[in-house]
């Protein structure tokens, strides 16, 4: 019922732009998407609770970003996950894969009931993103800091083929402590990859505390700018801002764009919000009930 | 004496030939193109050559992204930087997703010479062979290198090819046909088998020739594909010659010797000797001096053969 994505079979640029333009500005009042976000959040806490382990905090903080992409921006075909003209979405912060599983399931890549198998033996829904077992997952991740390099390679392949598809990479702010992220950022700037958009889910918390206390990666904007990127700062829970930024990124020429999305870790569940404890802990039965009530 | 060639020179030229035949071939290097010889490809196909700078982890990730989208990327740098420097990227970004990346390293082993220990990869084979799904090949000379590069380009798995800095004599016949996973019989014999890879192939043959004069007839196998290993050839050698010596410019731990020992322990145990680096780092020196100091000469192989024959049942 939520499957109202733009699944545009055409790889023609004009078509794509007009589809986006048609949506532009509509979203401030778009209650459907907000409802999708709530449903995705319910899926996330439920599947992690059923698994008994997983990472709710960083999954919940990325919901609006992932929903905006899968419901309004990406050209993709759930029935054909390897469609060659699809836009590529790369989840670099692989521990947040529940948000992606929820989006893929809601979009029809696989049945929703499969979410119950998360992290169970022989499930195709592994604890971290795995390209070989899950339809719609572009790369295996889980070792932080590797996704942007892969995205650069993907964008280079698209450019070589003169393809119109675009590359979207979702990073965490914790990942910006990894040197490889900056190796990749440097190369994307050098190669002027305007078919690449990175989104940093800047929730300010990592595994053991606040990012500013553990190893401050700020100011991210200045860093990315100095590496040759166009930078857009937004509130990552405001769907209008997320969609506008993603749209703007498509028009930037000659450099990659990074969207620094200020978010709240654990967003949507009061006792998980800004709580480092729920970086990597499943809610118990009682907590799940409370969370679902809040997300009803 | 046959003419000596540098396998990396052959690699660079073969890449250019492949580039002409297949537009999906792309090449990446990390500020060593004039040493790995990918510079020839860079000159021939600048739009398909990606200079990544001194950022090997990034290079492996970019190669993975290119491979995921239909390209056949060859990523090259020195063996130390192509493996241990970015092992997690090879493991997670390439192997775990089974992406079709070709890592071709040069300057492996002690024979790097004067640059010393930091530059002498002696554990790269152990590292890469430990990754599920990787194909691992160590060509013995220029003739074999040309065929190996073509074979890996056509092979749909992640591949690691290990080359050296220096020149080696031609050891393979002109009519030789390389096949992934197949050992090459270099000499027939029944008293023991010498199995060698890469730079140790020529000394292995020299040792076999010297031993033949003392009436010790060795079988010699070129085990160029380390993974998947040719179990049939190994088990047959164990059964028919009753003793095995392995020779490699690599740590004893985790290289050819370990793989052969594991194979025969399971299928047909026979005594073995290992000509390899014994849990030490390298050092500066001339290649020949280093190989002598670390016990990697024809003489060392011959001695090992005599030792292993004493223990034959
Ligand atoms: C290379 C690497 N080091 C350590 C970890 C363990 N780890 C998993 S999640 C995490 C913290 C994540 O924080 P952040 O990257 O900011 O993600 P988010 O807050 O968005 O969940 C760590 C340290 C890892 N997965 N990869």
Strand tally of chain B? 14
Whole-number average pLDDT of chain A?
91
Overall mean pLDDT of chain B stands at 97
Terminal residue distance of chain B: 38 Å
List the domain count of chain A as a whole number. 1
Examine the coordinates and then state which fold CATH places here, giving the name of the CATH topology of chain A.
Answer: Rossmann fold
CATH topology (fold) name of the largest domain in chain B: Rossmann fold
Cα radius of gyration of chain B in angstroms: 19 Å
Strand content of chain A: 5-15%
Amount of helix of chain A: 40-55%
CATH superfamily of the largest domain in chain B: Thiamin diphosphate (ThDP)-binding fold, Pyr/PP domains
Structural class of the helix and strand makeup of chain B? alpha/beta
Q: State the oligomer.
A: heterodimer
Under CATH at level 1, the class of chain A stands as Alpha Beta
- Unreliable parts of chain B: none
The total tally of domains of chain B equals 2
Bound molecules: thiamine diphosphate
Lateral arrangement of strands in the main beta sheet of chain A:
1-2-3-5-4
Number of helices of chain B: 13
What spatial order of strands do you see in the largest sheet of chain B?
Answer: 3-2-4-5-7-6-12
Q: Can you name the CATH architecture of chain A?
A: 3-Layer(aba) Sandwich
Question: Which key phrases capture this entry?
Answer:
heterodimer, A: 296 residues, alpha/beta, Rossmann fold, five-stranded parallel β-sheet, 11 helices, 40% helix, 10% strand, globular, B: 313 residues, 2 domains, seven-stranded mixed β-sheet, five-stranded mixed β-sheet, 13 helices, 14 strands, binds thiamine diphosphate
Task: Write a structural description.
The complex is a heterodimer of chains A (296) and B (313). Chain A contains eleven helices and five strands. Chain A is of the alpha/beta class and 296 residues long. Chain A has a single domain (31-294), classed as Rossmann fold, CATH 3.40.50.970. Chain A has a five-stranded parallel sheet with strand order 1-2-3-5-4, sandwiched between helices. In chain A, helix 10 (239-251) links the parallel strand 4 and strand 5 (257-262). Chain B is an alpha/beta fold and 313 residues long. Chain B has two domains: 4-169, Thiamin diphosphate (ThDP)-binding fold, Pyr/PP domains (Rossmann fold); 184-310, Rossmann fold (3-Layer(aba) Sandwich), CATH 3.40.50.920. Chain B has helices at residues 7-21, 33-36, 39-44, 56-68, 79-82, 87-95, 124-129, 142-153, 201-213, 231-241, 256-267, 287-293, 298-310; strands at 4-5, 25-29, 49-51, 72-78, 102-106, 135-137, 159-162, 168-169, 184-187, 192-196, 218-222, 225-227, 244-251, 272-277. In chain B, strands 3-2-4-5-7-6-12 form a seven-stranded mixed sheet, sandwiched between helices. In chain B, helix 8 links the parallel strand 6 and strand 7. Chain B is globular, with a radius of gyration of 19 Å. The interface between A and B is medium-sized, with 33 and 31 residues. Thiamine diphosphate (TPP) binds next to helix 3 of chain A.
